[in-house]
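Q: How would the structure tokens look for this protein?
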Amino acid sequence: MQSLAPIRPRFARCLPTFRAFSSSSSSSSSSSSDYSNQSRGGLPRFFSERLPSSKGGLVRVQDDEFWHMTKVLRLRANDRVELFNGKGGLVEGVIQTVDRSGLDFVALEDPKLVLPQSTQWHVFAAFGTLKGGRADWLVEKCTELGASSVTPLLTERSPTISENRLDRLQRVNMAAAKQCQRLHEMVLNPPMKIDGLLPLVAQSKLSFLAVAEATPLVTALTSSRRETSGLIVVGPEGDFTEKEVYELIKAGSISVGLGPHRLRVETATVALLATLMLWSDSQEKCGS
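A: Here is the predicted structure in token form.
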């Protein structure tokens, strides 16, 4: 299967398969059923690639998060906060010292490791031509809803997306992850052409393609089974070409409709993702 390198080096590589997580022996582990409880804390939460390995451990926080903690929120020594690493790790602690270049965080407990939700949905959407803040909104909502990754899809009618825009979208992604308090980062992958997507569709057991006037999504779900991962494919303004639709369906995508109205790219993406996240959650609860 083709691997997808993330835009930021600090984020893990992401494939449309179930993601594996490793933990040190000092970390406690929580099941995916505890995900919602663990992801909603009462303390301010900040990102750190490194977490203390155990209670009493110390890490240094610098750069953007340091600026946000001390200049925006005016946090000081002895204030309690949480750190997460975007891979399910979460730890509560206290700011020990603050200086001009950063702050020292001390863990008040052993870090927790929360497992990801059972179904990983990977979004492939052709949003390169969207104007204004519409692409920002799409990425933000995909992060909030729980998508595992978003890949800008390059098509005949949406052939490019600027590098500057991708950098901005990564910042939007991180801000949304902190705001909604999700513990597993959503990976923003580099752009991909249809030819690169076809092998991933062929290897996926669940791949839904938004197509006007196709079988309603809810109807299609009645004959679908929950899998560990799935793909969501949404075309550009002006839709996919007939050739692109044919190639995607031939590779294994299920064409689904999202109602009688013509939807914007970002609306179709969010509607499809939200429905599938709720369906996956209900399937998991019914099977437990």
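The CA atoms of residues 21 and 87 lie 7 Å apart.

The first strand starts at residue 28 and ends at 30.

Upvote if useful.
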